[in-house]
Task: structure prediction
Amino acid sequence: MKAFAYVRAGSVEEATEAYAAHPGAKYLGGGTNLVDLMKLGVEQPGALIDVGRLPLDAVEELPDGSLRIGATVRNSDVAAHPAVRDRWPALSQALLAGASGQLRNAATTGGNLLQRTRCPYFQDVTKPCNKRQPGSGCAALEGVHRDHAVLGHSETCVATHPSDMAVALAALDARVELYGADGTRSVPAARFHRLPGDRPERDTEIRPGELVTGVVLPAATAGLPSLYRKARDRASYAFALASVAAVLRVEDGVVRHAGIAFGGLAHRPWRAERAEAALLGAAPTEAAFGHALDLELAAARPLRDNAFKVPLARNVGVDVLTRLVPPTVA
Amino acid sequence: MADPLAAHHTATGAPAERREGRQKVTGTARYAAEHPLPGRAHAWPVQAAVARGRVRAVDTSDALSMPGVLAVLTHENAPRLGEQDDATLAVLQDDRVPHRGWFVALVVAETLEQARDAAAEVHVDYAAEDHDVLLTADHPAAYVPEEANGGNPATRERGTPDADFAAAPVRIDAVYRVPPLHNHPMEPHTSTAHWDGDRLTVHTSSQGTTAVRRTLAALFGLDEERITVTAEHVGGGFGSKGTPRPDVVLATMAARRAGRPVTVSLPRRQLATVVGHRAPTVQRLRLGADRDGRLTSLIHEVDTHTSRLKEFVEQAAVPSRVMYGSPHSRTLHRVTPLDVPSPSWMRAPGEAPGMYALESAMDELADALGTDPVELRIVNDTAHEPDSGKPFSSRHLAECLREGARRFDWAGRAVRARASTGNLLVGSGVASATYPVMVSPSTASAHALPDGSFAVRINATDIGTGARTVLAQVAADALGTPLDRVRIEVGNSDLPTAPLAGGSSGTASWGWAVHEACTRLTERLAAHSGPLPADGLDARADTTGTADADSPYARHSFGAHFAEVAVDTVTGEVRVRRLLSVFAAGRILNERTARSQFIGGMTMGLGMALTESSTVDASFGDFAERDLASYHVPVHADVPAIEAHWIDEHDPHLNPMGSKGIGEIGIVGTAAAIGNAVHHATGVRFRELPLTPDRILTALRERRHAPHAAMT
Result:
């Protein structure tokens, strides 16, 4: 670890200017992951731009029925927010399935999106890891990788993204709002994180210096039945072996909208677009859900020790989707 | 408010509150790192980054040039240490790297952060060699040692076990696997050392400072009189602090080199490789029985690993020498030295993994016989220890099983299993528990003061068990005085010498000496007339020759665990719904702290069953899980309705208090009870721990695809 500067930003503009002014700067949110990684020597920022007290701490209902969650709203507060619980329950459930109460009280919305993989090799500076040190190799490929990716991985990286929240955001068609040198923009949550390819050091599509200012939950998925379910080694405080967030709209006995995302399977929340397309217009039966998820998971390429994730994801997915079917249809 | 103790005639047995409880919950209890002596420096160790080889060179120049750095110790410049028995303590003495994570340097700096920063800039050049870290049942290097741990013979054989197994009408032959496990106490291994001339004071997190002092004397060539070691409060140990650990050696070396007090608090991520682990075991059980379920042959063979540094043989077959009667038996241990970190003591060493295997096999036998597993155990109960032929001083296994069955509603288990709904399969399981009664000689002193109060002194260690409290209760009864008149001092090697908190022997060993000292003091007081002299009256006791006298009896605690689980067929997740255990452990001296011990052990057993394991990384030679996010100890949500009960056991062949140890038996057999419940729920027999979703789901799918093959 090296010495670093610390700047507490008072505004979004101040934050991005400070970032530009300090080589090797990192934004600091709740610090629940970045500070750990600094202690391990995995992250060695030249400066920390503390954005934890920016005025981005509001949850606002927008006129069009969408909901904007500021980047510094704590995970606990998002999970407990009545509008989230009522209209996008999968997000509340996903947050509550993550970390521990203490961590959720500290972790921010923006920080949750930007947390790094918990791959043991990424966290150990004495071992190769292309994500931490590009070109050094991937120790997990042939190493201890029961928890690693089965979808979308590459020879350079088989890590998974650890966030539960991001999986729900992806399924719910949320957007991530960004502010940077080019002004503001927003990207779909499902495309915010990227696949490793040959650049595993890049987790997201964020541009240098860009700051996450918030996420927006759209009116289109408000009030639809949605669920998050996570399979894990212990009942709390464990990362997903596989998880599923889904939202479903059934009308006239057929599926009119399906948003499905997997967690724990890939380098990003895995939006199951193929499964969703297969379900559109179909009757919402267990068989149809199983068939659709099989189509999606046909792309899976399990590693030596994680083949169980494919049937696990299918099981959880079918279970979640089945529960989302309104009782009158079922 | 009524005094809760008023209803009791004696202090022992009462649910006295933990004496240091207030200090602990208000943060004023001081642990080993919390001694901010003037000028205190901090040290951060550097661990080997190869699994086997030699250190060719250590470049410390960058580290030494960094702010606040006072010294960098390596094998080339560290103080030379004297001879002692434990090779894991011979740190920074030569260039050999016996396993990944072995200490190769120590940075001493003004602050912890400076030490950590500089440790990252110590450049070590290795001559790496090929390594072998994987235990297999047929490893070519495996051998049968003379002894397994605890002085137990590695092999015991009675009768003709192979022939009688072959001839038995009902046979079970199965292999069970327990992975490496880590103790991970809340407080990491920590020592603060301070030299004053050639006088050494060390504050350490240890289960027994008598041994720490003796070891430091040997390592640093000092008389024990010149060394004081304290362990005032200890944040758990579970065996991993039972013997001195490298932190105390490093801190003492560093303090000598730096000429000022130094604290070494091992980072959590370093613990997995340097303070021991429960060695993995591969255990083959063969049970032969007649049609009534009586065992005719019991063969328990254990394969385990040790490091290149020491022969450590997890004595997992030893409980099979105690549990059930059988005319023919063989129990043996084989060990394979590998390039792995050194294994060490972990709660109920031997019994915890061994009883997982034996009690799982007993469940398989009950299944094969179509017998109730509770009854099968009672059928095989025995009044004499099979291995030694000695009578048990007391053995209430059958009572524990029957009382547990009643409380648990064991008779209703089939109904509950049939009530499994949707994706949840419900099942119940039972397993026995046992742990030996151990006791060691101890000394203690008792002092009567003119104000009517008493001071009792003994170098016991309270590692969170409630030892202070219980010893005060023992003293109060022996003195015939109210509990609040007794002051107790523990955790300092200047106090009367006492053995460690380990082997569930602390209360018996210390309590015996405290009881004797207080009884003598009572006699002195009775003979004394008039006011006490200004400095009071005292009495001392030393139980050498009595506490360690051979007993004509086999002495063990027993117990029975009952578990109900729900297995989710969607995810393969197993969650315990109820865990209920009944113990026969002699007289319970404090029902509050005893319950806490039992429940703690049972919870650790739940972790062993479902969540805990350390993965040997074949490529790198260390463990993949190195923090509490990845090494899964049970969290509150995993621990359901959990109940510990005990039966009133009177055994005159133990010690003056009539107590047996209670610190470890809670973990013994718990994993088998849970595993047996999973079998009851699913029909699938799992023989490798932990029962994580990957294993459960895979097996459930295999069963669905091949319904007959997996129903073994």
